[in-house]
Prior knowledge:
Blueprint: E1 3-7, H1 13-28, E2 32-34, H2 36-42, H3 51-61, E3 64-68, H4 71-78, H5 87-102, E4 110-114, E5 132-134, H6 135-146, H7 177-187, E6 195-199, H8 206-215, E7 224-229, E8 233-236, E9 239-242, H9 251-261, H10 272-283, E10 288-293, H11 300-311, E11 318-323, E12 333-335, H12 341-352, H13 356-359, H14 363-373, H15 377-386, H16 395-403, H17 411-420, H18 425-434, E13 441-442, H19 443-450, H20 454-466, E14 470-472, E15 478-481, H21 483-492, H22 494-515, H23 523-533, H24 537-541, H25 545-561, H26 565-581, H27 585-601, H28 605-622, H29 626-642, H30 646-663, H31 668-683, H32 687-704, H33 707-723, H34 727-744, H35 747-763, H36 767-784, H37 787-801
Parallel strand pairs: 1-2, 1-3, 3-4, 4-5, 6-11, 6-12, 7-10, 10-11
Antiparallel strand pairs: 8-9, 13-15, 14-15
Helix pairs in contact: 3-5, 4-5, 7-8, 9-10, 12-14, 12-15, 17-21, 18-19, 18-20, 18-22, 19-20, 22-23, 22-25, 25-26, 25-27, 26-27, 27-28, 27-29, 28-29, 29-30, 29-31, 30-31, 31-32, 31-33, 32-33, 33-34, 33-35, 34-35, 35-36, 35-37, 36-37
Amino acid sequence: MPKVFISYRQKNSAELERVRAFAMRLLARGIEVVLDQFYLSENPGGPPDGWLKWSSDQALTAERVLIVGRKGWFQCFDGKQPPGTGLGAACEAGDLRHRIDTAAGVNEDIRIVLFDAVDAANVSVHIARYHCFKVDTEFEAIVKWSGGRLPTSITGVPPKTSIPNNLPRLQPFFGRERELARIREALDPENRTWGALIDGPGGMGKTSLAVRAAYDCKPGQFDRIIFVSVKDREMDDDGVRKLTGVIIPGFLEMLNEIARELGLADIQKAAEDQRIRLLLDALRSGQTLLILDNLESLEKTDRDQIFNFVKRLPQGCKALLTSRRRIGSASEELILEQLDQEAALAILNDLARHSGLLARTSESERITLYDQTAGKPLLLRWVAGQLGRGSCRTISDALDFLRACPADNDPLEFIFGDLVQEFTVQETQVLSALTYFKFPATIADIAVLAEVSEQVCQPALHSLANRSLVVPNQEEVSFALVPMVADFLRRARPEVIAETGNRLEKRAYALIVENGYENHFGFPVLDAAWPTIAPALPLYLVGPNERLQVICSALVDFLDFTGRWDEWLSLQLRSEQEAVAAGDYYDAGWRAHDAGWVNFRRRQADEALSCADRAMLHWQQSKADGHEFAAGLQLRGRVQYLKEDYAAAAATCRESLNLFRKVSSGSENTTTLLNNLGGAERHLGNWEAAEGHFREALEVASALRYARGVATSTSNLAILAYDRQDWFLAERLAREALPLCEALGRQELIARNYRCLAAALAKMGRRREALTYAEQALDIFTRLGVVNNIERTNIVLRECES
């Protein structure tokens, strides 16, 4: 299988998703794609040696490389990007430039792809001779260059066959090359099997596949093709239609229909126990292909008889069965899985020829439709068919309508309704648990939430995957629920979903309260359980305000220390809104205050100041005491620090410190403010004063046994020693601070000590030793996204490498 590495640099989440969608299209064509997003989804902790080494390894060793040509990437290639930015792309670009230079300027295994034509103007002059594939118009050329599979089955021309048949007319058919190949093998006269069972949930295109395979049969392969369906209803754009006049309700009636198609209507007059023998005898005189469709509509005894009948077909005769339920052994079974993305887009392109609104949709919108419907052709066609009906003007409108459609036009009920009744207790529990996970979850995490053992959970997941209800990753170690299945389950089994939600909330609440707040020894417990805690947060946001505020307070340090700043900020802002709505201005103030600290960590001064102002207003309304206003002043002081107004920051810190001392002279807040004040004095060059504040903070923290204060104060003293060019003292203090910070798990503080230690060692000529610490610091700061710290760490890294 060809292997292609995609090198890119994105500016925002939309570009990130665009690259992922492009990679998914390549995967659908049989190309093995190496992409950082794919790696991260399967390895949540990231590469063991860090992203920079991973990026370099891929760029140097990948068989083929596709460069997503954007201005930012070419800046990295030319070494013109802003300092400290685009680190991964810069690493990849440098290594690819080396490969190009080594190949005398032209490397046939490297190409550029352009998402937008305007990007052609940004191509670096050093690789201007390289052909740039335009994704919109040259995707097939990209697939061919990458060694992928060309779409041999994609055609809008209705198939025909010269073999006498009663086949239904087939809609334009796309994709399913692999499945068609397996059916061709099963129908080969040299193959001893009776044929194949096409198994899968409703809406996957089982009937279309069987009929298409029949149309593909070569002249002379069969004398006749007979199609018999037990389908009693169909789904179109208007809803479910009952079929009348063509229903074959049972096994014997199906035999009668086959006899009529063979011109042997008298067989149906024979005794029931004779009909099978007579029909098999009649089939011996020729080569007949039977297509027996929608067998799930039959009773189990009838399904079993059908299976026994086709197993006894004479040599030269074959059968294709379609069913939502399993029949017989797995050896003849062909499980129809998700339609690949390329074929789904081809279906939508074909439908767009007759729909102006669909024709105006973008490829990204169509890919969203594909993802939401899990590639089920029936849902694709139904959603597209809603455009222009009622208030549906966009794909997003139609998907919203699908989630809340009326009973008489509900394709989810049509597809999944009968399956719900057949779920085992364990399968129901597993599915209910999966409705709460936004991202693929491991078997262990699903088992915890479903309250079943992993030994029970795993086969249940595999069974559900076989029915295309859950989607496993390639190694089948993590699973995600098809979005539309989740929507349907919430409607069809609300009591089970609610029960699972209650269990999730209670379990997560207990873990958070027990291991949160400043219980740093409990943070590893929260970290390990986070995949099953995070799904509970949306439930708290719509629950009682009092419980929500407890959760927020308990998670502040954990989310801060472990670098989950996106989740920290989102939770605080949403909880601030909920507190205001409940008239709880006291807690609203703390939520705004904590959101301000996230912005401070990210050096977003204006956003942090806005949060501080809101906190003060909330506290004024709640008539809070001096402690809260001192906290607000402290945050404002940090904003002044960010803006490099160190004199003002020092003055504000003193004012806040005086307020806190009035409340409690030896409090933990005193330690924090002394460190803040020392930091301002350090930047003002008042090193003696800075050291005095840091040491006082250390004394207070030690007396209180305040681990966070001790670690922070020791770290600040190490940095101050480095400023004073006392390299040996800086090394000693940084080494002393590191285990304290690691015990807390505060990632930013760990990285600061790594950098300080690396810088001090480099100054003493111990560069090889220093390099390891600099790389570790850079890895943490890159993950946290703190730009100024990344820039400063890069300077240290370059000194270590020189």
